[in-house]
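Reproducibility note. Readers wishing to regenerate the assembly model reported in the main text can use the exact inputs given here. Chain order matters: entities are listed in the order in which they were concatenated for prediction.
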Amino acid sequence: MRADRPRSRHEWVDGAAGPVVRPYTLTGGRVRSPALGLGLMALVRADAGVDPAAHPLLQPEHRRLVELARRAVPVAELAAQLDLAVGVVRVLLGDLLTRGLVTVYEPASVPRPYDDDILKAVVSGLRAL
Amino acid sequence: MDRIPMALKILVAGGFGVGKTTLVSALSEVRPLQTEEILTDAGSDTDDISGVEGKRTTTVAMDFGRITINEDLQVYLFGTPGQDRFWFLWDELAFGALGAVVLADTRRLADCFPSIDYFEQRGIPFVVGVNCFEGARRFGLESVRRAIDLDPDVPLLLCDARERQSGKLLLISLVEHVARQRGEPVPVA
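Running the prediction on these inputs yields the following structure tokens for the assembly.
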């Protein structure tokens, strides 16, 4: 199969792939971040009393992240709300972490084997939807 | 200060165009959200990709949804990328997942095989929902089960991915399946 596409070094960049984009323009080309290893479900919360207006160097996207994170929000949801790629959001979150504006928490994983009470709560919560 | 809730992750898998986005949207309490992961050939030891015009990036969209069970517990739904070339992203998504819903379309049944294989091989509990597209010929569940050679213990349901009530039954069936695999049924609340 690969021999059919000798010029493509990237199996994920083909005709059906999305546009080839430059998403890191927003981060000034930076791809590395203290938040690089952050999982999609890691929770981000702005520290109490944080006022992004006191940090003039922040970009509008940083400020929106802080506002969205007034309650604990998972990284995946922040990326979706800002309509930015997760990798870009990780870099921006790294900036906020460095400035001490947000705290990240790996979500408490539910202990295994799953507890009766948890499974019961999930089923009844779903039934109530 | 609010507490950090516990998180359960459920994957929604199946072939391209089978209704994963629709199902996640129907179930999520937040607006249908898509989150994109960037794939780049810039190595992980690269600090800066500016000025490297030869480097290429592309994005892959994943559906994301949230269901709040109570103040201490949230369920996150992740729709897996439909194209086979994104298999390597599945491992992060699947890590720690409670289980998965695999959507199937009787018009293109084979499209769900890779998802089923993936979860079977990793011992991740899953249920199969046959999405009833309008105009698609209805098949009996038993003939679908035979056609995909599904283990008799794996729940197989008809569903309509557009309907929240229908999607909810898939998730409940998954949680009950997880409980059964653990050896005990979910006690009646």
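We highlight two features of this model. Strands of chain A lie at 43-46, 73-74, 102-105, 108-109. Residues 26-108 of chain A form one domain.
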